[in-house]
């Protein structure tokens, strides 16, 4: 792509550094900003820089937060002895939006993925193990992706906790609500049969 | 979407103001920036703000430019008497990349579209008409989208030039190079028969 303007080329280049934004999309976005009032560009630039420089990670659960300790961890109505282990803030938001969970979270900041060069030491696994070993936790709920990497991470943490008396569970894998059996993949369907639940239990919630 | 952080919420909101970027995509992009070095965010913010405040429109062709007069207009090797009328800078870039055009451009900044509230006075049509009436132009080549709006804009400019002696042409519409006839739409195919060219001419270029 040949640009007639260095300023434009530079802006398009920086925009195209974002994931799944190619050169063409970046050009479209940047030209859009040029057609809008200058204030919109200023607000976007300020919001991004402000976020990057001011944002903190909650020192308890490592979730993204404006404060030293996030709103969830500092909420006295929530059960600190039940901890849901998730990958990142999007999972916290997804679980929060169900309204079904009243414990605390622990955000790992990723999952173990040798292919991407992410090992256990790149994640907040140690603080979690410490917390559990101090006896502060009664139940750990793994809520990671149902992938090889997610399963590896679950298993790695589980092994770290050998000998510690604690209830460890993982969220149920099964047929999505509203899904038809004939279209479900066999692994999910197989797991949903193995992990079947008492019918009375399924009537709740 | 419920955010645990106002800073994050604000950044996602501003990002989602860009076209075709929804809240979820915006969140993904912003979280990506958070995982990268701070410098990347700074560079992006600076590039956008710098572009928005420093960019100029060439006072001759109204293309986006770093200078008062763009590189194409100030190039003495190009024919100023042949002007290609386009919608925006992306069309200039597309035509330039063919290497087939050695004239100048005139960027309208859009096309007439009553549905979007864009009338002739919102576009750089008057300066083009002035240029032509001063006798500075020998040929005008319309290279706008093959849409209702494009055709309307072509026709509007053509009417403005009534009585002025000038050659006005429009880029050829026809079957794309490499396309199969059976899959071409009938309007394009029909036009390509009406506007057939001498075979000898098709052997060139």
UniProtKB/TrEMBL annotation, chains A, B:
<keyword id="KW-0234">DNA repair</keyword>
<dbReference type="InterPro" id="IPR015967">
    <property type="entry name" value="Rcmb_RecR_Znf"/>
</dbReference>
<protein>
    <recommendedName>
        <fullName>Recombination protein RecR</fullName>
    </recommendedName>
</protein>
<keyword id="KW-0863">Zinc-finger</keyword>
<dbReference type="Pfam" id="PF21175">
    <property type="entry name" value="RecR_C"/>
</dbReference>
<feature type="zinc finger region" description="C4-type">
    <location>
        <begin position="58"/>
        <end position="73"/>
    </location>
</feature>
<dbReference type="Pfam" id="PF21176">
    <property type="entry name" value="RecR_HhH"/>
</dbReference>
<dbReference type="InterPro" id="IPR023627">
    <property type="entry name" value="Rcmb_RecR"/>
</dbReference>
<comment type="function">
    <text>May play a role in DNA repair. It seems to be involved in an RecBC-independent recombinational process of DNA repair. It may act with RecF and RecO.</text>
</comment>
<keyword id="KW-0479">Metal-binding</keyword>
<keyword id="KW-0227">DNA damage</keyword>
<comment type="similarity">
    <text>Belongs to the RecR family.</text>
</comment>
<dbReference type="Pfam" id="PF02132">
    <property type="entry name" value="RecR_ZnF"/>
</dbReference>
<dbReference type="Pfam" id="PF13662">
    <property type="entry name" value="Toprim_4"/>
</dbReference>
<keyword id="KW-0233">DNA recombination</keyword>
<dbReference type="InterPro" id="IPR034137">
    <property type="entry name" value="TOPRIM_RecR"/>
</dbReference>
<dbReference type="InterPro" id="IPR000093">
    <property type="entry name" value="DNA_Rcmb_RecR"/>
</dbReference>
<dbReference type="InterPro" id="IPR006171">
    <property type="entry name" value="TOPRIM_dom"/>
</dbReference>
<keyword id="KW-0862">Zinc</keyword>
<feature type="domain" description="Toprim">
    <location>
        <begin position="81"/>
        <end position="176"/>
    </location>
</feature>
